[in-house]
Amino acid sequence: MARYYYTNAIIWALLVIATLFSFEAVSFAYLHQHALTIAMIFACLKAHLIAQYFMELRDAPKPWAIPFNALFIVATLAIAGIDAAAAYF
Amino acid sequence: MVADDRHAKLPGIIVFILADIASFVLFFIVFMAERAKQLDVFVQSGQHVNVTLGLINTLILITSGCLVALAVPSARNGQIILARRFILGALAVGALFAVIKGVEYYQKIQAGLLVDTNLYFTFYYIFTGLHFVHYVVGMTLLTLVYFKIKHQSSGHFLWLHSGALYWHMVDLLWIFIFPLLYFQGAR
């Protein structure tokens, strides 16, 4: 039982750190042109942590977890890809 | 959703959540495609949103989600009083999201940044508005769960589990909406 409390506390801390880090990272001038891509990568990692640990999908049958992670990756790649295309073409 | 629950009858809520997230992903792609056509408008408009308030709301939903995530194993372990305290905590923290959102909408309206100002703000109000509808449904579900699990009636755990999964979906959607709308001005 205590395992869940410790695990969730650690995941919460990681989510807060990732949120603050992405917030700080995009404020660096030299990262400005990649701000959205960097933020989306952090968003994808955070979504993965929420799905795996808060939603307990790590213990669920794989067919339940795979589509979630696939959606997060598709969203991140699509947004980053269109962002790159808009910036460079 | 531990090993014992692997064959529990929960696919309905899982399918609903997946479909809902997929719909939002399609909206995100439409947003990005429109943004590519008016990059300067979107980047300039993005400078008018309050990133700090968006950040605070992200931290609020993460914290509220964590409390809901703690309620599930507590209830599974028979600690219903503790589970209800976690749900109550999640509701209290979650309520702050609406307050912050209200402040944000008020600031936008006062500044004359409305749904018809430009395409960025049309998307801003659609995304945050749709998310807010999900948020209200989530808060309502958690309130129902808080009362339902008190009596430990049949299916009370299914209520808790489904409500928790829905609340995590509200969190997941915001995790993507936040950078998409609020980090536009960082370019």
Question: Would you spell out the secondary-structure blueprint of this structure?
Answer:
The complex is a heterodimer of chains A (89) and B (187).
Chain A: H1 2-25, H2 35-54, H3 62-88
Helix pairs in contact in A: 1-2, 2-3
Chain B: H1 11-37, H2 39-46, H3 51-76, H4 80-110, H5 119-148, H6 156-182
Characterize this entry briefly.
The complex is a heterodimer of chains A (89) and B (187). With 89 residues, chain A is an all-alpha fold.
Radius of gyration of chain A: 15 Å
| Unreliable sequence segments of chain B | none
What is the residue-mean pLDDT of chain B, rounded to a whole number? 92
Number of strands of chain B: 0
Structural class call of chain A reads mainly alpha
**Main CATH class of chain B:** Mainly Alpha
Looking at how many chains there are and whether they match, the oligomeric state comes to: heterodimer
Shape assignment of chain A: flat
Indicate the low-confidence ranges of chain A by residue numbers.
Answer: none
User: Distance between the terminal alpha carbons of chain B, to the nearest Å?
Assistant: 41 Å
Task: Report the helical percentage of chain B.
Answer: over 70%
CATH architecture of chain B: Up-down Bundle
- In what range is the share of β-strand residues of chain B? under 5%
Compressed to H and E, one letter per element, the order of chain B equals: HHHHHH
* Overall average residue pLDDT of chain A: 89
Structural class of chain B: mainly alpha
Described by the principal axes of the CA atoms, the overall outline of chain B is elongated
The description of the largest β-sheet of chain B is:
none
CATH topology title of chain B: Four Helix Bundle (Hemerythrin (Met), subunit A)
